[in-house]
Design a protein that fits this description.
The protein is globular. The chain has six helices and twelve strands. It starts with a strand and ends with a helix. The longest helix is centred in the C-terminal third of the chain and has 17 residues. It has about 250 residues and is α/β, with parallel strands linked by helices. The structure holds glutamine. Glutamine (GLN) binds next to α2, α4 and β8.
Length: about 250
């Protein structure tokens, strides 16, 4: 099948090679006989809510975030419609922050967000930097771990009743205090984990690809056949071990 990916603001939001997550999607899709077609969605481009099976937005510094925030905020309706139709979505760090209601910077300025995710973000004085280990349960009864790297000044506060992506085992997570990291809203996931995230957490790449395939109209139940993932498993172990050595939360 053909999986249509909308890559939001690729020239602005791409720190820590977050774009590498798309290479993982493309390779893992190709190994199962599927093709990934990536379309950039830039400032001023309309976002057609039916045009994509998977949406991706990476991380960025405050300066780059400020440049795209008003445009992203103008895409709320299209994002909500796409989400309601089951699009798979991954948002990393700066993109994760701006899919909430907004981000208040250190200087007090408020960047508007797209208000898809139920949260808001306020910059703090201390950056939260280091390796992270999370426990997630996207499928009830099937706990999985995610390893990654975080570097953010923003503290993201989830609304009452909002669902986190995972529970922090080691690291800071959303705000360094709640014990939660990221958010999950149906098929949409937001996280602070850079790295890029997916090379060392291939199960998450497949979880998103399966939802993208379902959106693309897969007739078969979209369970992707497993891949050997030897290097990916090693990468996960190294990353998880670094997070363990780092110890507990703030
Ligand atoms: N500028 C944001 C912060 O520091 C996001 C940074 C990032 O994407 N790593 O909170």
């Amino acid at each position: 099948m053909r999986i249509r990916v909308g890559h939001l603001y690729p020239d602005y939001l791409n720190i820590y090679a977050d774009r590498g997550n798309l290479a993982v999607f493309a390779r893992r899709a190709a190994l199962r006989g599927h093709e990934l077609v990536v379309h950039p969605v830039d400032r001023g481009d309309p976002l057609d809510p039916s045009a994509h099976d998977l949406l991706y937005i990476g991380g960025g510094q405050d300066r780059e975030q400020a440049l795209i925030a008003p445009d992203l905020a103008s895409k709320t309706e299209a994002l909500q419609t796409a989400h309601a139709r089951g699009v798979a979505l991954l948002a990393v760090c700066g993109g994760y922050q701006l899919l909430g209601r907004g981000y208040r910077g250190r200087d007090g300025s408020l960047m508007p967000g797209a208000a898809l995710f139920p949260h808001e973000t306020v910059a703090g004085d201390i950056r939260m930097i280091g390796d992270v280990l999370l426990e997630c349960e996207l499928e009830p009864g099937s706990p999985r771990q995610l390893a990654g790297f975080e570097n953010h000044a923003g503290r993201t506060l989830l609304d009452e009743g909002a669902v986190a992506l995972g529970r922090v085992v080691h690291g800071f997570g959303n705000d360094g205090a709640s014990g939660f990291e990221g958010t999950r809203l149906g098929n949409a996931l937001g996280t602070y984990l850079h790295g890029p995230l997916l090379p060392r957490n291939p199960w998450l790449a497949d979880w998103l690809l399966e939802r993208a395939l379902a959106h693309a109209g897969a007739t078969e139940p979209p369970t992707l056949p497993p891949l050997p993932d030897e290097l990916e498993t090693q990468a996960f172990r190294v990353s998880a071990e670094r997070a363990r050595r780092r110890g507990g939360r703030l």
